[in-house]
């Protein structure tokens, strides 16, 4: 008797969920449904827009609005911080529409979603940068924007992509600098030197590269490598920390 009661309760709950969904997303012509989705997008009601766009994607996967629904979902998911869903939709869209006229925008959005993944709670709440976080999303975003510039040199998003690449390059350089500083504080001198040289090799035109020379000099001094200390001092004179 108890099993029957639980089963009945679950069935009612499921039916209630379905009926409530139908109330939220009525069975209307796709043009009407898309119109309400657009209104939600324009007003910044991302959850409302996503519900309607997902309903369209489910009900009319090969309809006249199919590609535009996918593009709208990419943007709505991004604005709603549903970043994995945005990235999954991007991958799906590019797989099915590799030569679409708005492919450059899709690659641009892929870079934005990876950048957004790199936001930390501490930075969002207190505007504090943390360079000890995983830099993988930033590296992927840099590659996304680089690919955009290479494949679509005349894209309207190129200027913004270039600016973001500069920001990302400095962010990644600061991350490696923080790792080098950690090694110095742990007296892991060889590891510190290797990381400093990595900063200088990968990001030579950044402030972090100039700062890394100071850490490298410290590590050489601790290892009593006087020749390397002198060489690093000469490089520091040519590249003073600003």
TrEMBL record:
NCBIfam families: OM_YfiO
Subcellular location(s) per record: Cell outer membrane
Keywords, in A-Z order: Cell outer membrane, Lipoprotein, Membrane, Palmitate, Signal
An annotated GO BP: Gram-negative-bacterium-type cell outer membrane assembly
Domain Outer membrane lipoprotein BamD-like: 27-231
Main location: membrane
Gene Ontology cellular component annotations, sorted alphabetically: Bam protein complex
InterPro entries recorded: BamD (IPR017689), BamD-like (IPR039565), TPR-like_helical_dom_sf (IPR011990)
Pfam families documented for this protein: YfiO (PF13525)
Membrane topology listed for this record: Lipid-anchor
Annotated family: Belongs to the BamD family.
Quaternary context: Part of the Bam complex.
Summary of the function given for this chain in its UniProt record: Part of the outer membrane protein assembly complex, which is involved in assembly and insertion of beta-barrel proteins into the outer membrane.
Record protein name field: Outer membrane protein assembly factor BamD
């Amino acid at each position: 008797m108890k099993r029957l009661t639980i089963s009945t309760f679950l069935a009612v709950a499921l039916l209630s969920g379905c009926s409530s969904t139908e109330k939220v997303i009525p069975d209307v012509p796709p043009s009407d449904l898309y119109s309400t989705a657009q209104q939600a997008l324009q007003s910044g009601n991302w959850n409302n827009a996503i519900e309607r766009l997902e309903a369209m994607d489910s009900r009319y996967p090969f309809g006249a609005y199919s590609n535009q629904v996918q593009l709208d979902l990419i943007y709505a998911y991004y604005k709603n911080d549903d970043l994995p869903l945005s990235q999954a939709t991007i991958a799906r869209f590019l797989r099915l529409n590799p030569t679409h006229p708005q492919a450059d925008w899709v690659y641009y959005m892929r870079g934005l979603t990876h950048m957004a993944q790199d936001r930390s709670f501490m930075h969002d709440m207190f505007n504090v940068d943390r360079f000890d976080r995983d830099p993988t999303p930033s590296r992927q975003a840099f590659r996304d924007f680089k690919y955009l510039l290479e494949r679509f040199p005349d894209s309207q998003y190129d200027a913004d992509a270039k600016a973001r690449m500069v920001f990302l390059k400095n962010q990644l350089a600061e991350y490696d600098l923080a790792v080098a500083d950690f090694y110095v504080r742990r007296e892991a001198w060889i590891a510190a030197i290797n990381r400093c040289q990595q900063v200088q090799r990968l990001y030579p035109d950044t402030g972090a590269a100039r700062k890394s020379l100071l850490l490298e000099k410290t590590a050489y001094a601790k290892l009593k490598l006087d020749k390397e200390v002198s060489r690093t001092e000469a490089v520091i004179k040519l590249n003073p920390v600003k």
